[in-house]
Amino acid sequence: MENEYILEMRHITKSFPGVTALDDVDLKLRPGEVLALCGENGAGKSTLMKVLAGIYQPDSDKGEIYYQGQRRIFKAPVEAKQAGIIMVFQELSLVMDLSVAENIYLGSLPLKHGRIDWKTLYEDARKVLAEIKCDVDPKTPIGSLPIAQRQMVEIARGIALGAKILILDEPTSSLTDKEKDVFFENIRELKQKGTSVIYISHKMDEIMEISDRAMVLRDGKASGDFATANTTIDEIIQCMIGRSISNYYIKNKAQPGEELLRVEGLCREGQYEDISFSVRRGEIVGLYGLVGAGRTEIVESLFGITRPSRGDIYYKGKKIQIRNSVQAVRHKMAFVPENRKEQGLVLGETCRKNISLVKLPWIKKGGFVDTAKTFEIYEEYRHKLKINAASSEQLTAQLSGGNQQKIVLGKWLAIQPDLLILDEPTRGIDIGAKADIHRFISQLAEEGMAVILISSEMPEIIGVSNRLLCIRDGRICAQLSGEDINEQRIINAIMNQPEDRSNPAAS
């Protein structure tokens, strides 16, 4: 069939010092097709897309790219963009001090008499935002938006640039279920217009829902190609990692011990109101709600990042005030934040130095850091968390997302906390690394640690939590435990819907 494929990548190989990231990979894409690109972190997905987008060049003359029937090699990202190949990165590439409109059209701002035509800019931005049903004022500075809306702006940028191939890297990682549904509608509309989409995601349910085909990369090689309608999640996973993941979510079975933390009537003006709950040793308490419900704001006050307006915190049987995160650490509290790159890591430093950061006050020798201790800490958590790094001196910026998250987790576990707060701990990491982290969280709880877990993935929050707090509009709207932690009950709570007692799932 003539022009059956809008894109063919043939024999693509790409090596970096000490590693072959891509080894003779082929990829084909039809007009109006959604191709899911699957694989563990480090499998070569992003590298392959960066070759397509002109960020990297393939190693040999054997590697070829045919785009719209013509042989092309894009030597710079601007060439790929001009040709209609737009890549939206997982780690957002927005300019925080510029407006929404300026970010959408950055590099192609409308001009009039040599100056920016602000009226046209804002009008065009409103149109593209309306197209994806994103209710944001185009004049708003990006830095003032929550991360979910920033993600929508990134997607709007790709659409505004007239993408013929839109590459989406973990595009729903910060979207609510409602926003995700709207986003999927947008993808289906783009398909109808003939736009092709390459969809990179670790969320297997999304891949099954939105893609026409799934291509799997494993260790830099193409290892499988599936028509999504004719395959199963387990088949794709086995192709990705070489095994089936049994007991993917491992719920802690230990009996909870003594109460470690109790919160009574905690309030913070405009963020949350009348928050009361407790956490016991050996218990995993989940917090679930829509983005903006107040989950992160609540735990940030527990950890001293912000201060509540009123309310009491009791810890280990005593009423305490936590004025900053340093005090929280002294109380043996640990907090793994949602945004590992901005809040959890020093990307320009080594794995060893990052994993030792919180422990530094305890490992000084004669006023200097005991370097031998930092090596010991790294080695301990490298084994415990199965961190895959070339060496202790590898820069964290060079690690996959899953291994970066394990470094953040190890950094906090090094202080041997009694309370571990996890905010979206598996966001944007592959299915194998997720399983490792779930297993380790469960093990920590069984050893007596108290855990607070925030997750936007309902299967994760159901599969891991012993008890669940549903948060809506800054308030706890339901507390669930045991068999009551199910999808129907959670949806009823966060959407303020009455329960249907005739439905067995709701009882």
From TrEMBL:
Subcellular location(s) per record: Cell membrane
Keyword DNA-binding in record: no
Key words, A-Z: ATP-binding, Cell membrane, Membrane, Nucleotide-binding, Repeat, Translocase, Transport
Classification lineage: Bacteria, Bacillati, Bacillota, Clostridia, Eubacteriales
Residues covered by the ABC transporter domain: 7-244, 255-498
GO MF term set: ATP binding; ATP hydrolysis activity
Protein's name in the database: Sugar ABC transporter ATP-binding protein
Main subcellular localisation: membrane
Xref: SUPFAM superfamilies: P-loop containing nucleoside triphosphate hydrolases
SMART domains (alphabetical): AAA (SM00382)
Transport keyword on record: yes
Source species: Youxingia wuxianensis
Gene3D superfamilies the UniProt entry points to: P-loop containing nucleotide triphosphate hydrolases
Topology relative to the membrane: Peripheral membrane protein
Pfam families named among the record's database cross-references: ABC_tran
A cellular-component GO term for this protein: plasma membrane
